[in-house]
Design goal:
Elements (H helix, E strand, L loop, with lengths): L1 E5 L7 H16 L3 E4 L5 H12 L3 E7 L12 E5 L2 H10 L3 E4 L4 H15 L7 E4 L6 H12 L7 H4 L1 E3 L2 H11 L4
Parallel strand pairs: 1-2, 1-5, 2-3, 3-4, 5-6, 6-7
Helix pairs in contact: 1-2, 1-7
């Protein structure tokens, strides 16, 4: 499976890097391909290292203004002209999406894939990996949107909330019929 991971390129502490590394190792051991923003810094590097070191493949999609931070040695690296093209390519090249901890860029990517799902423009499974309760507030907001009628589809049709890396990958593999 080609799994797109939206996540931060920031250097973060162990409560975020440890679960990210764990997910990456599960992905690599499962023979999957990481599709990610292509950067070789911060949490993006942690995940790419974990996937590559355990036998998985790397497909990066960087962007012109970040190309200097792109990972050398990825199996595939594409440089998009802008962030909109980058998001489009990340989604085109993947079978599923995992949203990890991140800032405004990650939130932008996350809401775009959910908007596409809401309108039936994609049926890719989406997992929000709620590491250390990072997305508790967003989860609450999504539930409010659902309960007050802002979502035309059930929230469970749009996103699966996972608290642990193993649950995130298990959900994706099950959704794709992988045992």
């Amino acid at each position: 499976m080609r799994i797109c991971v939206f996540l931060s390129a920031a250097d973060l502490d162990d409560r975020y890097t440890r679960p990210a590394r764990e997910f990456a190792e599960l992905l690599g051991k499962g023979g999957h391909t990481l599709v990610w923003g292509g950067s070789d810094v911060g949490l993006m590097k942690v995940v790419a290292d974990g996937v590559q070191e355990t036998g998985g493949r790397l497909c990066g999609v960087s962007v012109d203004f970040l190309a200097a931070k792109a990972r050398a040695g990825a199996d595939e690296m594409v440089i998009a002209k802008d962030l909109a093209e980058r998001k489009r390519l990340l989604l085109e090249k993947s079978d599923a999406v995992v949203i990890m901890v991140g800032g405004t860029g990650t939130l932008d990517e996350a809401t775009e894939i959910l908007e596409l799902k809401k309108h039936g423009h994609t049926d890719k499974p989406v997992v929000l990996l709620n590491t250390a309760g990072f997305y508790d507030g967003l989860k609450q907001q999504f539930r409010r949107m659902e309960s007050e009628g802002f979502l035309p589809r059930p929230l469970t049709d749009l996103v699966f909330f996972a608290e642990e890396p193993v649950g995130a990958l298990a959900y994706l593999e099950e959704s794709q019929g992988i045992e």
